[in-house]
Amino acid sequence: MERDVQGLRIAELMADTGVAFGTSGVRGRVIDLTDRVCYAYTAAFLQHLEGCGETRPGGEVAVGGDLRPSTPRILAAVARAVRDRGYAVLHCGFLPSPALALHGIRRGIPAIMVTGSHIPDDRNGIKYNKPSGEILKEDEAGIRAQAVRVPAGLFDAGGTLGAGAVDALGPAVPDALEGYAHRYLAAFAPGFLAGARVGLYEHSAVGRGVVGRILEGLGARVTRLGFSEAFVPVDTEALRSEDVELARHWAAEGSFDALVSTDGDSDRPLVADETGHWLRGDVAGILCARFLGADVVVVPVSCNTAAERCGAFREVRRTRIGSPYVIEAMERARAEGPGRVVGYEANGGFLIATPLEAGAGTLEALPTRDAVVVLLAVLGAARERGVPVSRLVAELPARFTWSARLQDFPTDTSRECLATLTTGSLAEQKARLQEAFGGHLGVPEAVDTTDGVRVTFASGEIVHLRPSGNAPEFRCYTEADSEERAAEVNRVCLEVMEGWRAKG
Description:
This protein has 16 helices and 25 strands. By secondary structure, the protein is α+β, with helices and mostly antiparallel strands. The strands form 6 sheets. Strands 2, 3, 4, 5, 6, 7 and 8 form a 7-stranded mixed β-sheet that branches. The protein has a 5-stranded mixed β-sheet with strand order 15-14-16-17-20, with helices on both faces. A 5-stranded antiparallel β-sheet has the order 21-25-24-23-22, covered by helices on one side. The radius of gyration is 22 Å and the shape is globular.
């Protein structure tokens, strides 16, 4: 139950409601994300920034959201907290997360995005950006430590803003969305994608309009597909079977050079080749980084090892999973010396730490997940080489990844499972892993506990298990020398993990 006190401690609020920080900001069930909870988190975020000297009352805070049914209500609670803290609300409307973050960076103001990204619409979240970009892990700790004053009469017993307490946001200003589109239309030549035939899977992605506009502005012929008024939880790391079938159907029915899409808040890309085969996000990331001429590439530990094997980059650095870790490592690489520094994640989100020349202009740094740059780079690489997208993939080292998850798997249970596997000496860990997986995968050779547990077997096959950072899910990533084998290993692992859940 929420505590109706003025000195509300955020750490206690997290424990009471189950709404906590993950690797992409605050996430929780919509019924738990009451107006009062959203108000308190937002007040704590601003109070933290003020304590760090990064902002002060009297300035602006940009706000925006995705297309979930609960987003407008949460956005209103966020805006009320911003105003009560002494800031002006810059309402940017419904737009991609990277568009809002970019606008905040350009104006030097905080930006708050209401989004649950790819998760089902019975959940939502809030992503907080400092004037310099995403909040990092040290900021999360700082926000958790805050105690904020929440007016006792502002909310009813259920934590909902009273009728007279909801301020109208007013019309959205178009600057953030326009600036995002201009970022790409100015950096790439007008005919960059001339003649390219692209199928745009729109579903309920908040960026469906601007993505199509950018593609067409660069010369592509765009066919819009799969528009949905209802929210569709497209997860770029764990695609639904219907999304796989839709892509195959559209590719067979049309003459497309590629199919493209994004997740709900349009910071994670999806690219399918001319046959309707969706590329894994970390494969698209390699193609994008190579096209942009990156020197140093930062990736989470779960990403495909073809990044190292392809030989395209001076250095590949690996981190824990989550954009804050990638950003921190990119900043270290940037500070160490000259070079083009980028990062990407297994979900396909691409981050840029240093300005990059793109042909007609410069892509400024955008150290947050972005989808559009990947779509353009993959299509541009195929056009530049005069080959289909499938050929670009085929030329990479033959390493294939697969990922899936068990939903409604309590986080504490998944952590206990991993703790059982990783306690004791390395020899003891290998013995337990051999017992769990050896009958299917052979002998474990190396164990990496950077984030969860990542096991390399004597065959070269890799299994990586970790709890999700923002939902009650147990994720499994696998890598092998063929896509079929990577999928089979993943299936076997999920069966083992399901057995752990059954034992409880």
